[in-house]
Amino acid sequence: MTTKLEQNLPLRTSLCSRCDTEFVTRVHHPPIPLDTLQSGELPSQTETQQTLSFIEEEEAELFRYDEEISRLRRITGELEAQRLALHNRIEARRSYLATTRKIPLEIWEYVFTELCCTNSRYALTISPKVECVDAPAYTISRVCSRWRKIAHSRSHLWSSFSIDISNALPSIDTLLLLYIEKSHTQPLVIQLTDSYPLEDRDDNYFLEEDYAKALFGNNGKALFLALLSCMERCTRLDTSDFYRCNMLNHLFNEPPTISLPALHTIEVLAFSWGTPNYPQWFWDPIHTAPLLTKVITPSVWEDFDTLPWAQLTTLDVRELKGTELLVELITTCPNLVSLRIHEFIPEPHGPISTPVTSSLQNLAIGAEHSTPSSFDSIFAALTLRSLTSLELSSAAIWPSPSRDWPCPSLTAMLERSSTSLERLSISFPELGLASEAVTEFLKSTPFLTQLEVNLCGGLSITGRDSTTGLLTALNLSNPDGVLVPKLERLYILQRALRTHPEMMRLIVETVEMRSRQGLEDWGRIEDVVPLKALCVSFSPSRDSVEGLEDYGYGDESLAPVLDRVRTLSRGGTRCVIEY
After folding, report:
1. For the segment 323-346, what is each residue's pLDDT rounded down to a tens digit?
2. What is the DSSP string of 30-74?
3. pTM of the model
4. How far is it, in rounded angstroms, from Cα 533 to Cα 522?
5. Gene3D superfamilies, from UniProt (predicted)?
């Protein structure tokens, strides 16, 4: 049986429609029928000789086909190469005329910096937990030669790493070494983490060596060694998520040498039961780092031999238990300028020493799960000669009647310290202000320039709401004299109180009186600083009375108030009332 194609003899293939060049098949023998092949019939001697002759002729013809196909492929390849070269020339001309060539180098640098180094983003992030390698500078450098030249010449684009060394990806240290090389002599920011699940350490690992091998994998040591090669340029080190730091001992037969001459900030991991379990060879260079002045830690442990506390100027603590530990901490850090405690937990204590410090300027204490009375022991124990900024906050809820603020111990501390407090922020949403206490408190802060108050809007035990009492105390006609004469900015957030036109008029009158024009009218422009901004927000706030662009959603009775607000704005004093 022959196919339709096989019956069309001779076979011709057109190679060129212009010159009618054809490839003509010279040999065409009939095929062996399919039923003959399937029958098992043996060919005769004559048929055998004929078949061998056909094979020889057809193999020669097959060679002709191969030669022609090779020739055509060679021609096609040449045409494709010429086409590609032409295409590249066109793209080059388009690139030459591209608008992006007009963008100044400084703009590209700004864009790349925003992409690689902002919004808490590290220049290189290696995280096998999410199978992620985020390397924006490396990606940018592979776009085009111009971007590559810009990226390679801006070392700060390569100068921060977040490295998860648990289960490190194969050969990932090569990418890290590239970043270290491209960062040149730029100061480095390094974060060390491990994402190996804490619960995975079970009875499967009887030996710590086996656990360390499972933790770091085959590439963890190479990755850590790459980091060690650049530690002398590290200025900020974050190990707060490096939970199995004690396992580092099993990576090395002998302790490695680390030097941290440029380190000025470290964020460490601390456990509630004591000192972080870093290997001693890791602690020693931290303890001797000559420029280390800032520490961020979840807690403060009683072992004060691990960090160079005496040279610290900034300390950020997530949780601190008891006034005794706070006093010991301040005593151990004689050069401390800024201290922030996010959660202070009061504890029973005996007699406490009352240190006097002349270095601490900024103090922020939160007690989100304790009442404001927990601050009393702190104020009673401390004397802060140089305090310029104080932040106090507590969101705790306790049964009424609530204790009104300011408490006498705070006023006593400020008077005892003879401090030049300039900025004060009080956030006690469940408390009200006692008018008499406010007057005494403001008398103790004559240098205050900024005051932020977040208090309850209900009536205090004196029957007056917090905002009314505070604004009345700021009146120039106050019989106790002009309080806080240097006050420039006042921010009030008052909860659980619906405002009314009388309250708004009181706010505006206070601002008018403390504005430049008002002080001139009262003859107090020489000894009282004009108020620059007063913002009052009654929660929940919906509308705003500020300028013409914000008006139109409030009560019509507020129109006169709005006119006065506009006049204040033109005179340089901003008045915002949200209600």
Report:
1. 888 998 999 999 999 999 999 988
2. PPPPHHHHHHTPPPPHHHHHHHHHHHHHHHHHHHHHHHHHHHHHH
3. 0.77
4. 19
5. Ribonuclease Inhibitor (3.80.10.10)
